[in-house]
Amino acid sequence: MGMNTATLPSILQLAKDWPLRHPRVFLPLAAALWWALCQTLVPTSEWLVAQLPVDRASHLGGALQFFLYDAPKVLLLLAGVVFVMGMVNTYFTPERTRELLAGRTHGVANVMASALGVVTPFCSCSSVPLFIGFVQARVPLGVTFSFLVTAPMVDTVALTLLFSLFGWKIAAIYLGFGMALGILAGLLIGALKQERYLEDWVREMPQVSAEVDQEHMTLADRVAAGMASVREIVGKVWPYVLGGIAVGAGIHGFVPQEFLVSIMGKDAAWWSVPVAVVMGVPMYANTAGILPIIEALTAKGAAMGTALAFMMSVVALSLPEMIILRKVLKLRLIATFVAIVTCGILAVGFILNAIL
What we know:
Blueprint: H1 8-21, H2 23-39, H3 41-50, H4 59-88, H5 94-101, H6 108-119, H7 127-136, H8 141-153, H9 156-166, H10 168-191, H11 200-203, H12 219-254, H13 257-264, H14 272-280, H15 287-299, H16 304-316, H17 319-325, H18 331-355
Helix pairs in contact: 1-2, 2-4, 3-4, 4-9, 4-12, 6-8, 6-10, 8-10, 9-10, 9-15, 10-18, 12-15, 14-16, 15-16, 16-18
């Protein structure tokens, strides 16, 4: 006798609500399941390749194993980090972020803005509404740019994936250079007094005081926020992630190591870093989508500084982001922003190539 289909929706709803009814049980169980799945990735990917009519030692076999291992690994990492940060970010709403930055002195405010950019989930797609909110909350322009430079480039997802792929040293170096770039860019833009290059309608907006949402949230509310972040963020970026991993798999399996070393290797010509930065500008990807490509490039012998400079240009100087910012900034300010950030990324690339 089969299950009454009338009860199926109620069973599904019960399963959906269970984590929110029992968050203290759900969190450790979810963590244990996540860890167990991570431990199965290597043998599972090798087993899947073995079932296919390809030679594991061939270029295609290597590319397939890279994809079948990296795709679930990156998606698992992404889902785990986004869930945790979705809970953490219930303490850092846009209103709270604006309140923390408004009224601070220069220097201190730039450091705070860069640090907040690391722990908050705002990407280039959020630039316009955040920019408007910061202006209305009387946040200085330079401080706003410290946040907007750091937020898409040095988020917690990027740091977690960097740590997973390259270890804590590279993740820490990237964090330090990324925050320094955001702080210095904001200080320079603030010192240049570029407020007159805001679009007129932005400067004419009535200013409002930032207010913090003081609503008390339960653990269940924060778990719900984490689950919503996974649905929203992972649901949007997974095609880019798979696309980036597919490109990385192709590089890993088919691109000759000697070719990449000659173009992007540590001993390549001085112009390798500028070329990598220019190549990254027309692209549109987030750190989760671009990091598998960086992993494949460095595995083939690309210099770490050159590869990370390429990644920084993709996420901080992308053409789509400039188009979005054009809605609120005049071309003079966009050009200033691009020039400062480009010089910073080039410096980061050259310095990392020298020290790593």
